[in-house]
Amino acid sequence: MEVVKFQQAQLINSDLDMYYAKTDTPALCRTSSLVEELGQIEYVFSDKTGTLTCNEMEFRCCSIAGVAYASVVDESKREGEDGKDGWRTFAEMKTLLEGGANPFVDLSPVPGNEREVVNEFLTLLAVCHTVIPEERDGKLHYQASSPDEAALVAGAELLGYQFHTRKPKSVFVNIQGGSYEYEILNVCEFNSTRKRMSTVVRGPDGKIKLFCKGADTVILERLSEHQPYTEKTLVHLEEYATDGLRTLCIAFRDVPEQEYRQWVAIYNKAAATINGRGEELDKAAELIEKDLFLLGATAIEDKLQEGVPDTIHTLQVAGIKVWVLTGDRQETAINIGMSCRLISESMNLVIINEETSHDTHDFINKRLTAIKNQRSTGELEDLALIIDGKSLTFALEKEISKTFLELAIMCKAVICCRVSPLQKALVVKLVKKNQKAILLAIGDGANDVSMIQAAHVGVGISGLEGLQAARSADVAISQFRFLKKLLLVHGAWSYQRLSKLILYSFYKNIVLYMTQFWFSFFNNFSGQIAYESWTLSLYNVVFTLLPPLVIGVFDQFVSARILDRYPQLYMLGQKNAFFTKTAFWLWVGNALYHSIILFGFSVILFWGDLKQATGYDSGHWFWGTMLYLAVLLTVLGKAALVSDLWTKYTVAAIPGSFVFAMLFLPLYAVVAPAIGFSKEYIGIVPRLWTDAVFYLVLLLVPILCLSRDFAWKYYRRTYMPETYHIAQEIQKYNIPDYRPRQEQFQKAIKKVRAVQRMRRNRGFAFSQTENVARQDQARLIRAYDTTKTGARPSGY
């Protein structure tokens, strides 16, 4: 069995459908002991960023001074509802910056017209960050702590504001042909509590400014009065959120010299604090991050990996529940859930955002009771559960956890937002402890390792976040879409093959050794064996070695194409349909039946010993060898009946094994006695292999045994077919699929419902690595001087 499992793992490794040419990465099965569990998965726990998405951020849109800009603008967005406020392209923004014709009728209020606001906005993107520029092959590459950061700086470069050099105390930006130096005075770093980052800079004109970017919720409450662009920016944020984009708000303020000198003293004191340094720096930042002026917002697309929506939908059709555990904020996670078909428009969302343990407990109990009451009346609607990290902390407490799990299991999809790596593992362990189901966890980063190790089967994606997840997992793949073939094809095949291998292995041994047991009643339990001892040993080692191996490695109950077309066939593995107690005892009963028929007919035929044509008695070893070959042919015939796919290896293993036995045994029976062992075979070859009764027994008795099996197989397929029997016939006769297509109708419904549901949802993007105890991004960037060769950090 271990050999078969190893070969199944090798088949996964060598599958070209799971090879990713872009990174030259094949699938890698690190352990062969779990291959059959791939066919019995009921829950998939997935990370979002880098697993469902590419983790390649692209600067798509921005809203500046209440005007929306995008790289490509759809004609429907060119004109607003009242003929104004239409979207503009990035090319039109460049024209505005270069002093061309102003495409806007009205000039904006303070701090100036659109041109000044756009200049301030793009300057902020090019200056307020912790990115390190590197020049390779004549091109500028940005090294950032998060892909979002790099995308924003690349977006500024695209629009003519190129950040190209970083020194310990300043950055240099190319603006319309001229290089400008901005002195970095202080950096207030991003963390998940602040949800923003700020940079205090002294511009080329000597003025001090505070540049700030962050989540809309935290930026909007820190704005000064009389903001001209807030309402229009919020409308644009809603549109971006509906499209599943990650958003940030951009704001700034001028800082008087006197105010800065007072503040920097407080900041330096906080920076020198040993205990609680992070908290002190946050308090200092609060003092200066106020009275901001809103410039606009950015929208970044975290592209979904190819084939993700289809894969998630197919897994759900296959009866697998998909839970997404992500560090992103709720609105972004919901929108990604919509775009990847985890959540459909017809689903009712159960959103848990509570502040206390008591409120969380009450909310979960109320919703659970309401859902149970609704379902008791016969109303069955699909539900999706969305819970944030804070509420999840309370939901995982011992008193509430089982109630929370009961609610989650009733939902078709679950999204946990703003969760820590520890919470990911705790959610997996909660399901693992309370559900008798096989769990799979899939992720791509070091923060997913605990979740991957907590599940029964861990799958790592070798992506942009390194190989920690891939190295910690049982199976490594390079794209999420490969999970579909890994589970629905390789998993289903492996489970069915190993089930058949185990049952057949029991069967073939019971048939042979029960004939020996029946013989003991005729020899007064003297210990006399029916078969020659060496021949008996060769039964499992040589003559019936290949059939279970070939069935275990090459058998396919249906093809990969049919498994992909009908994912519901995967449920056979979840229900353990091929390896039940009933199936086991039926195989045992069948083996007993075959052994009785084989032994009974041979004893009746040889009752009182069979006389040969020569006049001699046939003898004990004549009868024993004939019975042995009849057993062998019956067992190989049974292997032929249960094989669903015949290949050249199947032909070599099943008919080939019997041909080999018929050639090897007479040769062995001649050679072995001549060299001093197996003397029971002396003179048996000319008597046995020339006797017509021997061939008659070989022909009739196995046919008599297997006729019952064949009749039962016919009856079952004709009158009580299983789902896979029907699928096998569809495959054999190549019957086309006539299921109705409703794609156009579903697209129209999706568009209407998405607008209705997403109107109030907004997401933000900012995923820097953070360490609360040591906020050291600022120290790191001050250690770089990219004007020097190699641009390696010094003194850090």
UniProtKB/TrEMBL annotation:
Species for this entry: Hermanssonia centrifuga
Keywords: ATP-binding, Golgi apparatus, Magnesium, Membrane, Metal-binding, Nucleotide-binding, Translocase, Transmembrane, Transmembrane helix
BP GO annotations: endocytic recycling; phospholipid translocation; post-Golgi vesicle-mediated transport
Descriptive protein name: Phospholipid-transporting ATPase
Residues involved in Mg(2+) binding: 47, 49, 444, 448
UniProt xrefs under InterPro entries: ATPase_P-typ_cyto_dom_N (IPR023299), ATPase_P-typ_P_site (IPR018303), ATPase_P-typ_TM_dom_sf (IPR023298), HAD-like_sf (IPR036412), HAD_sf (IPR023214), P-type_ATPase_IV (IPR006539), P_typ_ATPase (IPR001757), P_typ_ATPase_c (IPR032630)
Main enzyme class: translocase
All residue ranges annotated as the P-type ATPase C-terminal domain in the record: 470-722
List of catalytic residues: 47
Co-factor(s): Mg(2+)
GO cellular component, one term: trans-Golgi network
Transmembrane spans: 541-563, 584-608, 620-637, 649-672, 692-711
